[in-house]
Amino acid sequence: MARKSGHISILQFGEGLIALLRVRRSAKGLDIVAFETVRGDWSASEGAFAEALRELVKRLRIADDDVYTVLPRHLMTTRILELPSTDPDEIRGIVELGVEEYVPYPPDEVVTDQCILQRMPDGQARVLAVFAHDDVINSHVAVLREAGVEPKSILVSTACIASALLAGGRDESTRYAFADLSAGGLEVLILGERGFEFGRGVAAAQDWTTLGQEGSEAFEELLIELRASLSAYRRESVDGMGAERIELASPYADVAGVGDMLAGETGLECGAARVPAGLVAKGLDELQGRFPAALLGAALTAQDRARVAINLLPRSVVHARATARSRRTAYLAGGLIGGVLVCAIGLYAVNIYQRTAYIRDLESRVEQVRTVAEVVRAKQYNLRQLQTRVDRTGTALELLAKICELAPASGLNISKFSYTRNKEIVVEGHVLDMTDGDRFAQILRDEGGRDIPLLAAARPGRSAREEYLGQQVWRYTISIPYPDVTLDEGEGLAVE
User: Fold this and answer.
1) Which end of the chain is more exposed for a tag (fewer CB within 10 A), N or C?
2) What phi-psi label fits residue 169: left (phi over 0), alpha (psi between -120 and 50 degrees) or beta?
3) Among 269, 273, 229, which Cα is nearest to 245's?
4) Could you tell me which of 397, 391, 450, 393 has the C-alpha nearest to residue 425?
5) 338 Cβ partners below 8 Å, 6+ apart?
6) Contact at 8 Å (CB) between 297 and 251?
7) What does the pLDDT look like over 453-494, one tens digit per residue?
8) Average model confidence (pLDDT) across the chain
9) How far is CA 474 from each of CA 80, 414, 418, 433, rounded to the nearest angstrom?
10) Please, what CATH class does the domain formed by 396-495 belong to?
């Protein structure tokens, strides 16, 4: 898709003339970039006009602009109506229902649009309604498309001229007629206290550049149509009064010297119209002293600053473009979502790959140190075993010595000391009184446990009465178990 230039191009063409106005978007007055007219006799060769338009579009790269076109008033029907509503939707419905009242075509063959000119105090509204046959619009669009242009809107010269005149801060106390002389016809608008009050357009195959020549047919036709328009307005006006002066303008003809001739014929003040003050902010020199009112008003409409706006672009085209935009937006949104998903999947895949690579690296390192770790673990075990053998603390002799040290001086003997390493110590002997064995176990727990923690586990075992050395005594047993540890089998000591 070509990148838009940011400019607005207004095209108006008719028999023998193509007029182009190019502007920049501006928040204030119009910023004119270029104004150009192309004249020619294209009727002799089929397709010559389309070729000329295509060449202009290509040369100025108009297709990259937002393009608006202006249709002349004489190709359609316009009415200024007073309707009993100020609601735009209700007004649209009233106008569409009354199509057959204004044009001799079925409603489904007519393109209509309307805009409110004035809201009245009594709840009514003055409305400009426009009715154009499908064939007019379709043929216009076909010519543009053949030249490589897709118009954003199809405007009407009446509304555009009125917008340009109303935007100029005119003196509303003066009622005047404005005549726009364009290729293929002329249009007369009358502005008064209520703004745009009257409009009339007629087809005219005249070369308006010949107006100042003696016996000019163009001047005669202009005079006839001006008188007809002024008379028609006088009949329709509320007070029956007519215009006080006449202003002339043309996008391509010099009308400066025609005012005096018209004044002598009509008795009214006449002269060439000037571009209203404040309408153009920049580029006024580009107009070459002319006042292309329809093009300037269309530029206002393109920037949503027109007081009178009519768009005859068929609704089917509007709906098709809206559908295409929605579809394009959906495609873009789908593509964006797809892109996000692809990125997410890609990031996830990268993350998985990195994790897998890291795991493989760790496994490789584990394999590298596994042999060393096993050697270290074996050496640690051997060192613990060696330490156990070297350490004199807790040996059988030390334990026997401590037990003998804590044994009572009389009334008890130790006949057997059984030591199983890291498993159990068993002390056996004889006592005169059965309770002395329990008391000896208590002494081992309380006093011996302070120095040798193992002795804190001493517990009295079974006892039995028997004869020893010709005397009746009690055999006692004291068991001292080791805590749960890994044992080396076959290691033990027994002393009797």
Assistant:
1) N
2) left
3) 269
4) 397
5) none
6) no
7) 888 889 998 888 888 888 889 899 999 998 764 434 444 555
8) 86
9) 139, 12, 19, 7
10) alpha beta
CA 67 – CA 10 distance, rounded (Å): 6
- Beta-bridge partner residues of 248: 179, 272
Rounded to an integer, what is the distance from CA 89 to the centroid of its chain? Answer: 30
* Res 450 pLDDT > 90: no
Count of helix runs (H) and strand runs (E) in the chain: 12, 20
User: Cα separation of 485 and 423, whole Å?
Assistant: 8
SS3 content of the chain, % helix, strand, coil (to 5): 45, 25, 30
Tokens of 113: 């649009």
CA separation for the pair 280, 288 (Å, rounded): 13
State pLDDT tens for residues 103-132: 999 999 999 999 999 999 999 999 999 999
pLDDT digits 0-9 by tens, 237-293 = 878 888 889 999 999 888 988 988 999 888 999 999 999 888 999 999 999 889 999
CA distance 327 to 57: 28
d(CA 5, CA 10): 14
What's the gap between Cα 142 and its chain centre? 34
Give the global pTM: 0.66
3-state DSSP assignment of residue 442: helix
Rg (the chain; Cα; Å): 57
